[in-house]
Amino acid sequence: MHIGLIGGIGVAATIVYYQRLTAAVDALGGPLDLTISHGDIQTLIRNNLADLRGPQAGIFAAQVARLREAGADFAAITSIGGHFCFDELAAISPLPLVSGVTPLDDAFAGRGIGRVGLLGTRVVMRTRLYGQLARTEAVALDDEIDTIGQTYQNVAVAGACTDAQRALFIDAGARMVRDLGAEAIVLAGTDLNLAFDGQEPGYPVIDALDVHVDVLARLATGRLALEDVAVPAGRP
């Protein structure tokens, strides 16, 4: 199937999606049919912080329309933070949507994990992944959400992570394991690969991006039926 990705939010997140998706599809025997529509991270940040779901959904819907014109069979958002308006987008989307959040609960439960610690945007941490975890408990460092969320935002915009920023994320994860009983830390922000790739933090790490990519790769290669995982298009 032809995958349509809403990208550019940010650029580093889009690149890692592209890299891991091409590798996953290749491992399954490929080929990959893919189109990416570039978005604007600054607009997404403003709308996310102000909880302007309708306006951001409208922007995403215009991108999905371009993906449909390019021949995509379905669309996905390359940002867990961008999923804050997923329901609003689904209601008006010209294509079926494949969520990056919905598969996470089953993935955690399938690994026998009952409690996870979250790193990501302010909204992701405050809402505990938009309240979509039914089988897994999520925790966060509530008193530090603004600091961690701002640091994540800075990394996403820059497309790079400094040593100090990396140390902040890794320490936050360690304290959620030690003090809050998290059995694993979830990178619930696509750009967090910039901080954690190649690192040995001393605790289990689950990258939400990898769970999403696995679903997309199996769709691309016909190993998964679209109707089993996608939210139907909201309009023709």
Characterization of the model:
By secondary structure, the protein is an alpha/beta fold. Helix content is 50%, strand content 14%. It has 11 helices and 7 strands. The chain has helices at residues 11-27, 41-49, 53-69, 86-92, 102-110, 122-126, 145-158, 163-180, 193-196, 208-220, 226-229, and strands spanning 2-7, 33-38, 74-77, 115-120, 137-139, 184-188, 205-207. The chain is globular and about 50 Å long. The relative contact order is 0.18. The model has no long low-confidence stretch (mean pLDDT 95).
Average pLDDT across residues? Answer: 95
User: Could you state the order of secondary-structure elements as H and E?
Assistant: EHEHHEHHEHEHHEHEHH
Structural class: alpha/beta
The share of residues in extended strands comes to 5-15%
Span between N and C termini?
19 Å
Number of strands: 7
Shape: globular
Low-confidence stretches: none
Brief characterization of the structure:
Helix content is 50%, strand content 14%. It has helices at 11-27, 41-49, 53-69, 86-92, 102-110, 122-126, 145-158, 163-180, 193-196, 208-220, 226-229; strands at 2-7, 33-38, 74-77, 115-120, 137-139, 184-188, 205-207.
